[in-house]
Amino acid sequence: MRRWRIILGRGGTILLAIGLALLLVSLIPAAQIGNFSGTWIVQPERFDTPYTPFSERVVTPQQGLHITATANSTLNVYLLEVKSQTIYRWINEHHLEPIDSSNVTYLEEFLTSNPESIGWQNEIPNENIEFEYVPTKITNTTLVFSNPSSHFIHVEYEGSITALVAPRSKVQTLAQWTIPIGFVLALPWLIDLWRVRTRRRGSQLQTKPT
Amino acid sequence: MQKGKGRPFLEVFASALHEDYRFPILETFAFLYALGTFVFASFASMTSISVTGELTAYSLTSSLLGTPLFIFIILIFKNIAYGLGSDIEKGIIQTFFSYPLKRRWILSAKILSALGVALLLFLSIQISAIYVLAPDVVAPYLGTVLLTYAANLSFPLLIAGIMLLVTLVLRRGGLALVLGIVLFFAFGIIQSLAMFVASATNSPSTLQIISVILPYIVLGSYYQISGTFGGSVLWTPTFTEVLLYLGASYAIVASLFFVAYLYFSRRFGL
Fold it and tell me: What range defines the domain where residue A130 resides?
């Protein structure tokens, strides 16, 4: 019984140590390595891939993209883990007749056929939207605004690229779980350890010659 | 192990664990491994999408085998030279000899504690941490990640084997610890020299010779990270060659441990 308490206790203290390390990692501030902003008018039933600093380069799991966008009507926004040319190439390869490759229908076809390319997606509900995206592999990234409505939509966006030690939210969540679990497992053993030490100190005081 | 011998083995193992990992040694190393993995992981050399997933997995794993691996080496050197050495010096090993347990099982319990637990802690924390960092890099190429670890861990295990043998022969750990540290740095110099000679003579022979002891060189050459000098490729080993060099290095490690077992079982006296 006592041996099990030691094993669980040491397991708990190890979890606690790992949790504290993760917490420390999550507290390391991200360094901003680039920013961008723009204004775009998305035509009815069309999609657009505005130029961003990450359009021409790859992003790694140690880089985060923080984007804020505002639109005057409901607009779909995607972060696709492909180059913008890949989307247009795919559309042109699958439609041999002359087409307007910026049509929303073709984007939806592309997304249905390549669901793994969607890194993040959401709807700008006629107001401000803010999101952070950290890739899980080395990948190209393209920002896509898609307007399924029949009227022009004005969108303003700004963002930044940050250098991270680790994906903060993921590491923070892990720390939030490991620290309490470790503490609960370690507590009985730590109490035992404290009792033994106090008893030993007490007996040492008693045996000291007066 | 015969039936009924399990309990004495566990007693020796528990005693070894208690000696090797007094509170908070294990916790400190767990903290450093977890922190080190994130701090030292780097994607700096992988700025092109044309880099294959396998090469990304190799480069990412290699990037965090610098300082965290050195921390691991410190732990196993301490456990073998100081832990086993002080057990011999204090006569604790003599007490274990009175247990109804063969000598080889006593040594197994000590090695399992000194190396096995340290290795388990190191690998489990590092692999979990890189999975958290880049799941889509690690999960599809777990084989590459494990191969990179195997290639990098062979040398520390070789030195651990030498230290074990020296500790048993000299019956003290201090000298073995010094020898281990000297060997560790000496091989770093030998590796640099081998690379220089290979570059100067335009021949991969020195790299091939040293790869038997340091198989991470052959793996690096396979991925064209090492073995390339001034833009020219000196050595392009095949995957089978990588496995052969890795197998040879682990055969040397295994033979060292085998000699240590033989010595402890037959010749070791107090």
Answer: 31-164
